[in-house]
Amino acid sequence: MDLVMFETMNNEAGKMITLKEYVTAMPTEQKDIYYLIGEERNLLENSPHLEYLRSKKFDVIFMTDPIDEWVVQANQAFDEKPLKAVGKGEIDLDEEDKKDTEKKTKKAEKKHKNLIEFLKKHLDEKVKEVRFSQRLTESACCLVGEQFDPSAHMERLFKAMNQEMPKTKRILELNADHPLIGALQKVYDNDKKDTRLPEFADLLFDQALLTEGSPIPDPLNFSRRIADLMVVGLEKEPGK
């Protein structure tokens, strides 16, 4: 582990650093070594999982070699600092952010209680849970795993090798501040039996799959939904 080198979010593409260099550059308030695994840098650096950490100026290691998934499973820490996947479990917040986030989350859970229950029920076969996110600051949604779940990247690796592995449901996290959540709530409040709600729920899940680099189950249906939304948006333009 003293010898391995990686690209990171806060360094330009192509620059490789050691874990020791990463730890040396960590802000004093950062307790964990954060990493994200995927196929290539350009996909990882646009991941919604990075948004909170980027806002705190914490660095994230990009692991793009297929063997990395097994390396981090065998090495859970470096220099007494835990290695933490940014796409699993909860993100550790500082005390000030934690208080603000808990207050915001409780308010959102109360305001959107019925909508969340609808999403959980409709997406029950696809996701383990629907909850509001601590890690999202810009994107509407993302998928995260439990701490010891296999990652989406691991699932894709096994599929590429024609090997089966148990399908793991993940958690759909929503950004309480995103206007999309407010818009969905208005549709639900207006008519909870609106036939568009199941379509929007599926579209939300497909969007989360795409942002993590996973294939969507029905690309044709996804394209149709996007086209329908584009038509609605264009028809509402001034002068139409």
What is shown here, in short?
By secondary structure, this protein is of the alpha/beta class. It has 10 helices and 9 strands.
Helices and strands in order:
Elements: E1 5-8, E2 17-18, H1 19-25, E3 33-37, H2 41-44, H3 51-55, E4 61-63, H4 68-74, E5 77-78, E6 81-85, H5 95-111, H6 113-122, E7 127-132, E8 141-144, H7 152-160, E9 170-174, H8 179-190, H9 196-211, H10 219-235
Class of secondary structure makeup: alpha/beta
Helix content: 40-55%
What is the average of the pLDDT values? 90
| 3D shape | globular
Strand line-up across the major sheet: 2-1-4-3-6-5
Q: Low-confidence parts lasting 5 or more residues at pLDDT below 50?
A: none
Number of helices: 10
Distance between the terminal alpha carbons, to the nearest Å? Answer: 61 Å
- Please outline the major beta sheet: 6 strands, mixed
Number of DSSP strand runs:
9
Strand content: 15-25%
- The helix/strand series, from N terminus to C terminus, equals EEHEHHEHEEHHEEHEHHH
| Rg measurement, Å | 19 Å
